[in-house]
Amino acid sequence: MTSELVIQNLHVTVNDGEKEVLKGVNLTIRQDEIHALMGPNGSGKSTLAYAIMGHPHYTVTEGDILLDGESVLEMEPNERARKGLFLAFQYPVAVPGVSMANFLRTAVSNVRGYTDQQPTSEDGRPGVIGSNLMPMRDFRRELLDKMDEYHVDRDFAKRYLNEGFSGGEKKRVEILQMAMLQPKIAIMDETDSGLDIDALRVVSDGVNKLAGTGLGILLITHYQRILEYVKPDYVHVFYNGRIVRSGGAEVAHELEARGYQSVREEFGEPELVTA
Amino acid sequence: MATTSDREALAGVKDEYRYGFSMPEEYVFKSRKGLDHEIVDQISDLKNEPDWMREFRHRSLDIFLSKPMPTWGADLSEIQFDDIYYYLKPTEKAGTTWDDMPDSMRNTFERLGIPEAERNFLAGVGAQYESEVVYHSLQEQWTKLGVIFLDTDSGLREHEDIFREYFGTIIPPSDNKFAALNSAVWSGGSFVYVPAGVTVNIPLQAYFRINAQNMGQFERTLIIVEEGANVHYVEGCTAPIYASDSLHSAVVEIIVKKNGRCRYSTIQNWSSNVYNLVTKRATAAEGATMEWVDANLGSKVTMKYPAVYMMGPRAHGEILSIAFAGEGQTLDAGGKVVHGAPDTSSKIISKSISKNGGRASYRGLLKVAKGATGSKSTVVCDALLLDDRSRSDTYPYIEIDEQDVQVGHEASVSKVNEEQIFYLMSRGLDEEAAATMIVSGFIEPMVKELPMEYAVEMNRLIQLQMEGSIG
Question: What one-character-per-residue DSSP string does B385-435 give?
Answer without folding.
Answer: ESSTT-EEEEEEEEEE--SSEEEEEEEEEEE--HHHHHHHHTTT--HHHHH
